[in-house]
Automatic annotation (TrEMBL):
Gene Ontology cellular-component annotations: cytoplasm; membrane; myosin complex
Transmembrane segment boundaries: none
Top-level taxon of the source organism: Eukaryota
Name of this protein: Myosin motor domain-containing protein
Organism field: Panagrolaimus superbus
A GO MF label: microfilament motor activity
Lineage: Eukaryota, Metazoa, Ecdysozoa, Nematoda, Chromadorea
GO biological process, one term: actin filament organization
Region feature (Actin-binding): 170-192
Length: 298
Protein backbone atom coordinates (compact mmCIF):
# COMPACT_ATOMS: atom_id res chain seq x y z
CA UNK A 1 0.00 0.00 0.00
CA UNK A 2 2.78 2.41 0.98
CA UNK A 3 4.76 1.86 -2.20
CA UNK A 4 1.74 1.82 -4.53
CA UNK A 5 0.54 5.17 -3.15
CA UNK A 6 3.82 6.83 -4.04
CA UNK A 7 3.98 5.08 -7.40
CA UNK A 8 0.67 6.71 -8.33
CA UNK A 9 2.13 10.12 -7.47
CA UNK A 10 4.99 9.33 -9.83
CA UNK A 11 2.66 8.21 -12.64
CA UNK A 12 0.59 11.36 -12.24
CA UNK A 13 3.72 13.51 -12.39
CA UNK A 14 3.00 15.49 -9.23
CA UNK A 15 5.72 17.12 -7.16
CA UNK A 16 6.67 14.56 -4.53
CA UNK A 17 9.83 13.36 -2.81
CA UNK A 18 9.82 9.58 -2.47
CA UNK A 19 9.80 8.52 1.18
CA UNK A 20 11.26 5.21 2.29
CA UNK A 21 8.98 4.12 5.12
CA UNK A 22 11.07 0.99 5.60
CA UNK A 23 8.00 -1.21 5.23
CA UNK A 24 8.47 -2.79 1.81
CA UNK A 25 7.30 -6.38 2.20
CA UNK A 26 9.10 -7.64 -0.91
CA UNK A 27 12.01 -9.11 1.09
CA UNK A 28 9.69 -11.06 3.40
CA UNK A 29 7.57 -12.32 0.49
CA UNK A 30 10.71 -13.34 -1.39
CA UNK A 31 11.96 -15.33 1.60
CA UNK A 32 8.69 -17.25 1.69
CA UNK A 33 7.91 -17.68 -2.02
CA UNK A 34 11.14 -17.66 -4.04
CA UNK A 35 12.39 -20.92 -5.66
CA UNK A 36 14.65 -21.69 -2.69
CA UNK A 37 12.34 -20.02 -0.18
CA UNK A 38 10.71 -21.53 2.87
CA UNK A 39 7.63 -22.96 1.11
CA UNK A 40 9.64 -24.43 -1.77
CA UNK A 41 12.05 -26.08 0.65
CA UNK A 42 9.15 -27.42 2.72
CA UNK A 43 7.56 -28.99 -0.37
CA UNK A 44 10.91 -30.41 -1.45
CA UNK A 45 11.49 -31.98 1.94
CA UNK A 46 8.05 -33.62 1.82
CA UNK A 47 9.16 -35.87 -1.04
CA UNK A 48 12.70 -36.59 0.19
CA UNK A 49 13.06 -40.11 1.64
CA UNK A 50 13.71 -40.25 5.38
CA UNK A 51 13.26 -36.49 5.69
CA UNK A 52 12.19 -35.13 9.05
CA UNK A 53 11.25 -31.86 10.70
CA UNK A 54 14.81 -31.67 12.04
CA UNK A 55 16.35 -31.99 8.57
CA UNK A 56 13.98 -29.31 7.26
CA UNK A 57 14.96 -26.91 10.05
CA UNK A 58 18.65 -27.56 9.44
CA UNK A 59 18.34 -26.96 5.69
CA UNK A 60 16.42 -23.71 6.24
CA UNK A 61 19.11 -22.45 8.60
CA UNK A 62 21.93 -23.43 6.22
CA UNK A 63 20.17 -21.78 3.27
CA UNK A 64 19.02 -18.51 4.82
CA UNK A 65 20.70 -17.68 8.15
CA UNK A 66 23.12 -14.82 7.61
CA UNK A 67 22.16 -14.66 3.93
CA UNK A 68 18.71 -13.08 4.12
CA UNK A 69 17.88 -9.99 6.22
CA UNK A 70 14.47 -11.32 7.28
CA UNK A 71 15.70 -14.72 8.49
CA UNK A 72 17.09 -14.75 12.02
CA UNK A 73 18.29 -17.02 14.76
CA UNK A 74 15.45 -17.20 17.33
CA UNK A 75 15.81 -15.82 20.82
CA UNK A 76 15.77 -18.35 23.69
CA UNK A 77 12.23 -19.33 24.80
CA UNK A 78 10.69 -17.58 27.77
CA UNK A 79 8.59 -19.33 30.37
CA UNK A 80 6.42 -22.00 28.76
CA UNK A 81 7.26 -21.01 25.20
CA UNK A 82 8.25 -23.86 22.89
CA UNK A 83 11.73 -23.90 21.45
CA UNK A 84 11.90 -22.19 18.05
CA UNK A 85 13.97 -23.40 15.11
CA UNK A 86 14.15 -20.03 13.34
CA UNK A 87 12.66 -16.53 13.40
CA UNK A 88 11.37 -14.33 10.59
CA UNK A 89 10.89 -10.57 10.48
CA UNK A 90 7.34 -9.74 9.35
CA UNK A 91 5.70 -6.32 9.05
CA UNK A 92 4.08 -6.61 12.47
CA UNK A 93 7.27 -7.85 14.12
CA UNK A 94 9.56 -10.84 14.46
CA UNK A 95 7.84 -14.23 14.70
CA UNK A 96 9.47 -17.38 16.11
CA UNK A 97 8.76 -20.64 14.26
CA UNK A 98 8.89 -24.25 15.44
CA UNK A 99 9.03 -26.80 12.60
CA UNK A 100 7.57 -29.70 14.59
CA UNK A 101 5.04 -31.68 12.48
CA UNK A 102 5.44 -29.35 9.50
CA UNK A 103 6.09 -32.19 7.06
CA UNK A 104 3.12 -34.27 8.19
CA UNK A 105 0.78 -31.28 8.17
CA UNK A 106 1.97 -30.15 4.75
CA UNK A 107 1.49 -33.60 3.22
CA UNK A 108 -2.00 -33.91 4.73
CA UNK A 109 -2.56 -37.26 2.96
CA UNK A 110 -6.07 -38.41 2.15
CA UNK A 111 -6.54 -42.17 2.12
CA UNK A 112 -7.45 -43.35 -1.39
CA UNK A 113 -9.76 -46.04 -0.02
CA UNK A 114 -11.75 -43.42 1.88
CA UNK A 115 -12.01 -41.21 -1.21
CA UNK A 116 -13.20 -44.14 -3.34
CA UNK A 117 -15.85 -44.96 -0.73
CA UNK A 118 -17.05 -41.36 -0.71
CA UNK A 119 -17.30 -41.29 -4.51
CA UNK A 120 -19.27 -44.54 -4.57
CA UNK A 121 -21.73 -43.50 -1.89
CA UNK A 122 -25.35 -44.21 -2.85
CA UNK A 123 -26.83 -42.66 0.26
CA UNK A 124 -25.34 -39.17 0.12
CA UNK A 125 -25.41 -37.32 -3.21
CA UNK A 126 -23.73 -34.25 -1.71
CA UNK A 127 -20.75 -36.32 -0.59
CA UNK A 128 -20.37 -37.74 -4.10
CA UNK A 129 -20.51 -34.26 -5.63
CA UNK A 130 -17.90 -32.88 -3.23
CA UNK A 131 -15.37 -35.61 -3.99
CA UNK A 132 -16.08 -36.32 -7.66
CA UNK A 133 -13.24 -34.09 -8.95
CA UNK A 134 -10.68 -35.43 -6.49
CA UNK A 135 -8.19 -37.79 -8.12
CA UNK A 136 -6.81 -40.71 -6.19
CA UNK A 137 -3.21 -41.71 -6.89
CA UNK A 138 -4.38 -44.65 -8.99
CA UNK A 139 -6.71 -42.43 -11.05
CA UNK A 140 -3.93 -39.90 -11.58
CA UNK A 141 -1.56 -42.59 -12.86
CA UNK A 142 -4.19 -43.91 -15.28
CA UNK A 143 -4.96 -40.40 -16.53
CA UNK A 144 -1.27 -39.65 -17.02
CA UNK A 145 -0.65 -42.88 -18.93
CA UNK A 146 -3.58 -42.17 -21.25
CA UNK A 147 -2.35 -38.67 -22.04
CA UNK A 148 1.22 -39.88 -22.49
CA UNK A 149 2.38 -37.38 -19.88
CA UNK A 150 4.25 -37.87 -16.67
CA UNK A 151 2.45 -37.88 -13.36
CA UNK A 152 0.26 -34.96 -12.42
CA UNK A 153 1.54 -31.77 -10.83
CA UNK A 154 4.85 -31.35 -9.16
CA UNK A 155 7.79 -33.57 -8.42
CA UNK A 156 5.68 -35.94 -6.41
CA UNK A 157 3.31 -36.86 -9.23
CA UNK A 158 -0.25 -36.49 -8.05
CA UNK A 159 1.10 -35.47 -4.65
CA UNK A 160 -0.34 -32.06 -3.77
CA UNK A 161 0.80 -30.40 -0.56
CA UNK A 162 -1.18 -27.99 1.58
CA UNK A 163 1.21 -25.18 0.67
CA UNK A 164 0.73 -25.90 -3.05
CA UNK A 165 -3.04 -25.68 -2.68
CA UNK A 166 -2.66 -22.52 -0.58
CA UNK A 167 -0.54 -20.83 -3.24
CA UNK A 168 -3.00 -21.84 -5.96
CA UNK A 169 -5.88 -20.44 -3.92
CA UNK A 170 -3.92 -17.26 -3.15
CA UNK A 171 -3.08 -16.72 -6.82
CA UNK A 172 -6.77 -16.99 -7.73
CA UNK A 173 -7.65 -14.50 -4.99
CA UNK A 174 -4.99 -12.02 -6.16
CA UNK A 175 -6.20 -12.34 -9.75
CA UNK A 176 -9.72 -11.50 -8.62
CA UNK A 177 -8.57 -8.58 -6.43
CA UNK A 178 -6.40 -7.13 -9.21
CA UNK A 179 -9.42 -7.17 -11.52
CA UNK A 180 -11.51 -5.12 -9.09
CA UNK A 181 -11.25 -2.00 -6.94
CA UNK A 182 -11.48 -3.43 -3.42
CA UNK A 183 -12.15 -1.44 -0.27
CA UNK A 184 -11.10 -2.74 3.10
CA UNK A 185 -12.71 -2.47 6.51
CA UNK A 186 -10.43 -2.98 9.48
CA UNK A 187 -12.15 -4.78 12.33
CA UNK A 188 -10.61 -3.98 15.71
CA UNK A 189 -11.24 -6.10 18.82
CA UNK A 190 -11.85 -3.69 21.74
CA UNK A 191 -11.11 -6.26 24.44
CA UNK A 192 -10.48 -9.98 24.87
CA UNK A 193 -13.35 -10.48 27.33
CA UNK A 194 -16.10 -9.84 24.76
CA UNK A 195 -17.61 -7.18 27.04
CA UNK A 196 -19.47 -4.15 25.73
CA UNK A 197 -18.22 -0.71 26.69
CA UNK A 198 -14.72 -1.95 27.58
CA UNK A 199 -11.72 -0.67 25.62
CA UNK A 200 -8.30 -2.20 26.16
CA UNK A 201 -6.05 0.61 24.92
CA UNK A 202 -2.91 -1.53 24.66
CA UNK A 203 -4.75 -4.25 22.71
CA UNK A 204 -6.29 -1.73 20.30
CA UNK A 205 -2.97 0.08 19.76
CA UNK A 206 -1.23 -3.19 18.99
CA UNK A 207 -3.87 -4.08 16.37
CA UNK A 208 -3.69 -0.65 14.75
CA UNK A 209 0.08 -0.96 14.57
CA UNK A 210 0.13 -4.52 13.21
CA UNK A 211 -2.62 -3.81 10.65
CA UNK A 212 -0.67 -0.87 9.24
CA UNK A 213 -3.38 1.62 10.16
CA UNK A 214 -1.01 3.97 12.00
CA UNK A 215 1.48 3.91 9.12
CA UNK A 216 -1.39 4.53 6.73
CA UNK A 217 -2.36 7.62 8.72
CA UNK A 218 1.24 8.82 8.73
CA UNK A 219 1.43 8.48 4.97
CA UNK A 220 -1.90 10.28 4.57
CA UNK A 221 -0.56 13.20 6.59
CA UNK A 222 2.55 13.45 4.46
CA UNK A 223 0.84 12.62 1.18
CA UNK A 224 -2.37 13.39 -0.70
CA UNK A 225 -4.95 10.76 0.28
CA UNK A 226 -7.94 12.36 -1.46
CA UNK A 227 -8.14 12.64 -5.22
CA UNK A 228 -10.67 13.30 -7.94
CA UNK A 229 -10.59 13.23 -11.73
CA UNK A 230 -10.24 16.61 -13.45
CA UNK A 231 -13.75 16.61 -15.03
CA UNK A 232 -15.33 15.57 -11.72
CA UNK A 233 -13.52 18.34 -9.85
CA UNK A 234 -14.61 20.95 -12.39
CA UNK A 235 -18.23 19.82 -12.28
CA UNK A 236 -18.54 19.55 -8.49
CA UNK A 237 -16.72 22.71 -7.47
CA UNK A 238 -17.73 24.97 -10.37
CA UNK A 239 -19.71 27.13 -7.94
CA UNK A 240 -16.49 28.07 -6.10
CA UNK A 241 -14.92 29.51 -9.26
CA UNK A 242 -17.79 30.06 -11.68
CA UNK A 243 -15.96 32.11 -14.32
CA UNK A 244 -12.97 29.81 -14.48
CA UNK A 245 -15.15 26.69 -14.65
CA UNK A 246 -16.79 28.02 -17.83
CA UNK A 247 -13.53 28.79 -19.60
CA UNK A 248 -12.48 26.87 -22.71
CA UNK A 249 -9.82 24.21 -22.64
CA UNK A 250 -9.06 20.78 -21.32
CA UNK A 251 -10.44 19.77 -17.89
CA UNK A 252 -6.91 19.82 -16.44
CA UNK A 253 -6.33 23.42 -17.50
CA UNK A 254 -9.75 24.46 -16.19
CA UNK A 255 -9.09 22.75 -12.86
CA UNK A 256 -5.76 24.60 -12.55
CA UNK A 257 -7.50 27.94 -13.17
CA UNK A 258 -10.16 27.17 -10.56
CA UNK A 259 -7.55 26.16 -7.98
CA UNK A 260 -5.50 29.29 -8.72
CA UNK A 261 -8.55 31.42 -7.94
CA UNK A 262 -9.16 29.57 -4.66
CA UNK A 263 -5.53 30.25 -3.72
CA UNK A 264 -5.89 33.97 -4.55
CA UNK A 265 -9.01 34.08 -2.39
CA UNK A 266 -7.02 32.37 0.39
CA UNK A 267 -9.50 29.51 0.49
CA UNK A 268 -6.59 27.16 -0.25
CA UNK A 269 -2.81 27.22 -0.18
CA UNK A 270 -0.58 25.73 -2.84
CA UNK A 271 0.60 23.12 -0.33
CA UNK A 272 -2.96 21.79 0.01
CA UNK A 273 -3.11 20.18 -3.43
CA UNK A 274 -1.28 18.90 -6.49
CA UNK A 275 -2.58 18.70 -10.05
CA UNK A 276 -1.66 15.45 -11.76
CA UNK A 277 -2.06 14.27 -15.33
CA UNK A 278 -5.60 12.94 -14.76
CA UNK A 279 -6.49 13.83 -11.15
CA UNK A 280 -6.35 16.57 -8.55
CA UNK A 281 -4.77 15.39 -5.28
CA UNK A 282 -5.59 16.90 -1.89
CA UNK A 283 -4.07 16.81 1.57
CA UNK A 284 -6.13 15.19 4.32
CA UNK A 285 -9.08 17.36 5.35
CA UNK A 286 -9.00 19.70 2.34
CA UNK A 287 -11.92 18.07 0.52
CA UNK A 288 -14.04 18.58 3.64
CA UNK A 289 -13.14 22.28 3.57
CA UNK A 290 -14.14 22.55 -0.08
CA UNK A 291 -17.43 20.80 0.68
CA UNK A 292 -18.13 23.30 3.48
CA UNK A 293 -17.40 26.23 1.17
CA UNK A 294 -19.61 24.70 -1.50
CA UNK A 295 -22.42 24.14 1.00
CA UNK A 296 -22.34 27.78 2.11
CA UNK A 297 -23.08 28.95 -1.44
CA UNK A 298 -26.17 26.79 -1.93
Amino acid sequence: MFVLEQEEYQREGIQWTFIDFGLDLAACIELIERPMGIIAMLDEECIVPKASDATLAQKLIEQHLGKHPNFEKPKPPKGKQAEAHFAMKHYAGTVRYNCTNWLEKNKDPVNDTVVTAFKASKENELLVEIWQDFQTQEEAIVAASKSGASKKKGKGGSFMTVSMMYRESLNKLMTMLNATHPHFIRCIIPNEKKQSGVLDAALVLNQLTCNGVLEGIRICRKGFPNRTLHPDFVQRYAILAADESKSAGEPMAIAEKMLARLVRQKNLTEENFRVGKTKVFFKAGIVAQLEDQRGELF
